[in-house]
Amino acid sequence: MEILIYGAVTSAIYAMLAVGFTLIFGVARVLNLAHGSFYALGAYGAYVLTSIAGLPLWLAAILAVAGVSLFGVLVEKILIRPLRYSQLGVLMITLAIALVVEQSLFLTFGSEYRNVPAFVDTKINMGGVDVAGQRLLTLVVAGVSIAVLYLFIQRTRLGSAILAISQDADAAKYMGIPSDRIFSLVMAISAALAALAGILAGPFLSVQPSMHLLPIVKAFAIVVVGGLGSIPGSILAAFMLGYAETIVAYEISTSWTEIVSVLATLLMLVFRPAGIFGKRTAF
Amino acid sequence: MKRIVKMLALGFCLSHALLHAQESKPLRIGVPTSVQLQVGRDTITAVKMAVDEINKKGGILGRKVEYVTADETENPETGISAIKKLVSDEKVDLLVGGYTSGVTLAQLPHIAASKTIYLGVGAASPSITAKVKNDYDTYKYIFRVGPINAAHQARALVEYISGFVIGELGYKKIAIVGENAKWVQDLVPVLKRGAAEVGADIRMTELFDTQTSDFSPLLAKVKSSGAQYMIVILSHGSSDVFAKQWHDAQVPVPYGGIDVKSMDGDFFNRIGGKSISEVAANFAVRAPLTKKTIPFFDNFKKNSPNYPVYTAFFAYDSIFLYAEAVKRAGSFDTDKVIKELEKTRYEGVAGEITFDESHDVLPGKGKTNLIFVQWQDKGERVVVFPKELRTGNFTLPPWMKK
């Protein structure tokens, strides 16, 4: 039971991170190494707005998510777009962004851990297991936001445009879909999801300048396992990895959890490089 | 003849003037520390306080004192550059600082080569002062003013378990949880053996990776192991997250032990009060340990937004005990000062400071010791052990109170 609940929470955070990461790859073919920075900025944004500016948490959260997604759009427009036709260039520029963000946080806030307040402070007992309310909230919000994203892509005109570009960017362009604007939109969604994950996980995970590393490593592992560019694949892989780590932590030792994702990536690359759902399109 | 006398007199005057100029040149203290961390910022604040006080009283043997800092981070490479900057570019006469043992160990050969006295105030590895014992002539410049070394700390922790956890609280079932680092791997066997000897029933021992960010599985295991008390050994990183997750899941097992981040004066506030009832070992708190303790704490608070952490006590003491050694030696000659430093008996902020033959600070009654301090309501810190220093009673976490 403990494994079931804690595994689900871990998986939900991973899914939020991986979906955004895979979305921007699937649509714009951008392998965004700065994805973890959005997560870090979300958490720090909430920290600054609540502890320093003294805003209520819900407002701080909305502002932080909006701010980070704007930051994502600007990064895409100014820094990534000119280099988009060079895979290597994109890798280098996004890595540079990640490092710049990390160092700026380091210089501004020092290397100490910061406290992001929790939305809910109560403890809830589920089937004999004590779970912090914040974790359940994270699970619910992750589920809802991914579902909304899915409906948005499947049901709206903009969503169809995203789908079209992910299937064939050139053809979509000839059909009159403004691909640049779609890229901005996708970047905004992807950054917002990561920032939201940072705000939700901040109260129970760590908030410090190098916090962007963990999500980028996990997101990478998940999309490799699930298939780069595939959203259902990354959700499935997020759950596989989340549960695998939780099971290892319970049954073997906490010191072994970090190796799970690396091992999963390695095995997948050896035996099925395309991932579980690997194909060229996003869906 | 007259001419010779005149020239001699002139020469004497000149050399005297030169000597005097040398003497009145300010004494420069180099402070290598982790500037980004609380331990580092507090080291600098304490050095500044000591320097100001000494200058107000006319300096050391008539020489004014000034200090210069260098960021050694937690990375050995940067640590070495910091020492090189201080001894070669800044030409300092004394070094006071340090935090991470790995960094200090990497710096030692460079400090020894520069023949500059180094007063360590942060690193706890016994290997640092072991060098002095093994090769005195090369490493005699190294002293550890604080904290007491890791082996002494392990012994103090066993005393806490036998004297307080078992002796007073009556909790025999104990879980040991620590980060997977060299100093913890060395400490845990000593701790387990010691605890078993004093009658503890060790229900589980688990070391986690220092990168771990989710402790819920670990905490759930502690809960289901039936342990009544959890001993922690944490230093590099995860203390904040650990306390938060322990609090949020309302784990029905109180915890305490060595938790370096929890020594920070602002620890309670920066994690939103979630360390409530945690007992963290410390070297001093605002309590009358010596007659200097409370004045130092109050004075420090005027210079800084927070109460000092342990590096501050030892940095402050270091400069005064160096000044005393110089006065006793009657000169700044390094070898003479080292001889006097070895004889140090100085009443510091946390207790009396004396060195053993490896230049390591000695623990014991009235000297520097681990004291066990509990976080209580509103971030107030209360000494619960040892008994003779107690300032308040132990309380359970709010969710365990009946």
Helix/strand layout:
The complex is a heterodimer of chains A (283) and B (402).
Chain A: H1 2-28, H2 35-52, H3 57-80, H4 87-109, E1 123-126, E2 129-132, H5 133-155, H6 157-167, H7 169-174, H8 179-201, H9 213-226, H10 231-251, H11 257-271
Antiparallel strand pairs in A: 1-2
Helix pairs in contact in A: 1-5, 1-8, 1-9, 1-10, 2-3, 2-4, 2-8, 2-9, 3-8, 5-6, 5-8, 6-8, 9-10, 9-11, 10-11
Chain B: H1 2-24, E1 27-33, H2 38-56, E2 65-71, H3 76-89, E3 94-97, H4 101-114, E4 117-120, H5 126-134, H6 136-139, E5 142-144, H7 150-166, E6 173-179, H8 182-197, E7 201-208, H9 216-224, E8 229-234, H10 239-248, E9 255-259, H11 267-270, E10 279-282, H12 293-303, H13 310-329, H14 334-342, E11 346-347, E12 352-353, E13 371-376, E14 380-385
Parallel strand pairs in B: 1-2, 1-3, 3-4, 4-5, 6-7, 6-8, 8-9, 9-10
Antiparallel strand pairs in B: 10-13, 11-12, 13-14
Give an overview in words.
The complex is a heterodimer of chains A (283) and B (402). Chain A is mostly helical and 283 residues long. Chain A has helices at 2-28, 35-52, 57-80, 87-109, 133-155, 157-167, 169-174, 179-201, 213-226, 231-251, 257-271; strands at 123-126, 129-132. Helix content of chain A is 72%, strand content 3%. A two-stranded antiparallel ribbon of chain A has the order 1-2. In chain A, a hairpin with a 2-residue loop joins strand 1 (123-126) and strand 2 (129-132). In chain A, helix 1 crosses helix 9. Chain A is globular. Chain B is an alpha/beta fold and 402 residues long. Chain B has 14 helices and 14 strands. Chain B has helices at residues 2-24, 38-56, 76-89, 101-114, 126-134, 136-139, 150-166, 182-197, 216-224, 239-248, 267-270, 293-303, 310-329, 334-342; strands at 27-33, 65-71, 94-97, 117-120, 142-144, 173-179, 201-208, 229-234, 255-259, 279-282, 346-347, 352-353, 371-376, 380-385. In chain B, the strands form three sheets. A seven-stranded mixed β-sheet of chain B has the order 7-6-8-9-10-13-14. A five-stranded parallel β-sheet of chain B has the order 2-1-3-4-5, sandwiched between helices. Chain B has a two-stranded antiparallel ribbon with strand order 11-12. In chain B, helix 13 (310-329) packs across helix 14. Chain B is elongated, with a radius of gyration of 23 Å. The mean pLDDT of chain B is 89. The A-B interface holds A 2, 6, 10, 106, 110-115, 117-118, 121, 123, 129-135, 203-206, 214, 246, 249-250, 253-255, 257-258 and B 36-38, 180, 206-209, 211-218, 220-221, 237-241, 244-245, 248-251, 261, 270-272, 399.
